[in-house]
Amino acid sequence: MLMAHPAVLKNLLEQYDILRLLHAENGSPEVQQRMEDLAYTLCVSTGTRDIETALIAARHQLPGARPEGDSLLTA
What share of the chain has pLDDT > 90, as a percent? Predict the structure, then answer.
């Protein structure tokens, strides 16, 4: 599987986190679409199918990620 460059992932994560903090899902159609686009891009970039898994996977691919944080394993 191809992996996105860490700088790209960092940028996508930052944009998504900002929109989520601003509750963009309740914003204008354009802002909602941007959030959906970021979620889709994060999923494609990490080879995942849902945004929560994509966020965890993207964070694990960043330099300095610690394996003991945000586990990808399910109980």
Answer: 65
**CB-based contacts of 51, cutoff 8 Å, min separation 6:** 16, 39, 42, 43
36: its two tokens:
């959906």
What is the C-alpha separation between 29 and 12, in angstroms, rounded?
Answer: 19
Residue of 42, 37, 40, 46 whose CA lies nearest to 3: 46
Q: What is the pTM of this model?
A: 0.81
DSSP state letters, 11-74: HHHHHHHHHHHTTGGGS-HHHHHHHHHHHHHHHHHHT-SSHHHHHHHHHHHSTT--TTSS-S--
